[in-house]
Design a protein that fits this description.
The chain has 90 residues and is α+β, with helices and mostly antiparallel strands. The protein is 30% helix and 14% strand. It has a domain at 2-62. The protein has a two-stranded antiparallel sheet.
Length: 90
């Protein structure tokens, strides 16, 4: 999917294909790095990075890829008794 998106971006050097490397596993993620080459770095990097990432996001939605949100369990080891106000005790 990511390679498809780079092919659609104008500023990329077409004869240098993008490279996707797996960097590791996060708490709730697979960490990937996308390497691309552009024709005109003097025109800025943030805008091309945003364009590519938004395109990847669209491809994820198009292919049904969902990003999980981390879930945490809370374990209470000791509890302090809680006194309720009289109107809440009923």
């Amino acid at each position: 999917m990511e390679e498809e998106e780079e092919a659609e971006t104008e500023r990329l050097i077409k004869h240098r294909p993008p490279v996707v490397q797996m960097k590791g596993f996060g708490d709730s993620s697979v960490d990937l790095e996308l390497i691309v080459w552009i024709n005109d770095p003097m025109n800025g990097l943030a805008n091309i990075k945003s364009e590519i990432l938004l395109g990847v996001w669209d491809k994820f939605r198009e292919h049904g890829v969902e990003l999980p949100f981390p879930q945490r369990d809370l374990h209470i080891r000791s509890a302090v008794p809680l006194e309720l106000a009289p109107q809440m005790a009923n």
